[in-house]
Amino acid sequence: MKTNRNALLCFLIINPNGQTAMTYGKQTALPQTKQTKDEYMISNIDTTAGKRPKKEKFKPAVLLTREAMEATVNDYKRLKLEHVSLMAKMESEKTAVEKRYEERINTVARDIESGFASVHNYCVTHRSELLPGDRKSFETVAGTVKFYDTPHRVEVRGKETLGALAKRLLGLVFNAGTPEEVSCDKYVREADPTVNKDALLADRTRFTDEQLKAMGVRFEQDEIFAIDLKSDLAEGDKTNAENAA
After folding, report:
1. How far apart are CA 126 and CA 243, in angstroms?
2. Which end of the chain is more exposed for a tag (fewer CB within 10 A), N or C?
3. Distance between CA 169 and CA 24 in Å, rounded?
4. Do the beta carbons of residue 53 and residue 60 sit within 8 Å?
């Protein structure tokens, strides 16, 4: 009996152990080799099931007609609306999770602060007992309790500003005229001159080409492609937000 190889059918494969497997689809002939029926079944198992798909390579489509371009704009708009919807849904779920844990987290955080303050107060009032001599730390089962010094920093005495102090240091010299002379200007860091771009832009139309060449500057513009969507994107954002609420 001839078999239509293109017919859609269901057939059974029986291996030597009497087990069967039901397959749907186009009929294909068993391999004409010494491959056993068990091997044939194993070789035709879909090994990609359950695997995470590979990330697709980014490659914009090449559009050849206006119709294709307009269809892509429509698809672009649809995807933007879908993106807004998904973001709103995600934020809604995040808010629900935060609310579920908020009370417990606040309670734990408050207990942490309270415990830290209690230990700090005890160590301050019993420091000589806990840290005799020059010791600054001690060990417990849970960890190390310690006092430590931060790196040194510079602060200004009185109400003098850093700017005023820097200018004064430029002329301040200790032990002038002696081998121990110290000029305080080395403690001042002067900023390098920089171009005021905002002022140049404000006067852009006043300069001639010759003046710009003499100054060594020029004004440039870049052409940016954009798609201005209609207001229903914003409406979709509002609707999704209301639905999430």
Report:
1. 59
2. N
3. 90
4. no
Structure tokens at 24: 């749907």
Return the DSSP state at 18. S
The amino acid that residue 119 corresponds to is V
Backbone angles phi, psi at 10, to 5 degrees: -115, 130
For residue 186, the 8-state DSSP code is: G
Please say whether the beta carbons of 43 and 21 come within 8 A.
Answer: no
| pLDDT tens per residue, range 170-218 | 888 888 898 978 788 878 877 655 677 877 787 888 777 877 776 667 8
Q: Which of 78, 87, 72 is nearest to 232 (CA)?
A: 78
**For residues 93 and 240, is the Cβ–Cβ distance under 8 A?**
no
What sections of the chain are H helices per DSSP?
37-43, 66-125, 127-130, 162-169, 197-202, 209-215, 232-244
Structure token digits, residue 104: 């417990």
Q: Is the C-alpha dihedral spanning 160, 166, 168, 174 positive or negative?
A: positive
pLDDT category of residue 41 using cuts at 50, 70 and 90? very low
What is the spatial distance between Cα 158 and Cα 174, in angstroms, rounded to a whole number?
21
Q: How far apart are CA 6 and CA 27, in angstroms?
A: 7
Burial of 88 per CB tally in 10 Å (0-12, 13-18, 19+): buried
Rounded to a whole number of angstroms, the CA Rg of the chain reads 39
Q: What percent of the residues of the chain are helix, what percent strand, and what percent coil, each to the nearest 5?
A: 45, 10, 45
The pLDDT of residue 50: 59
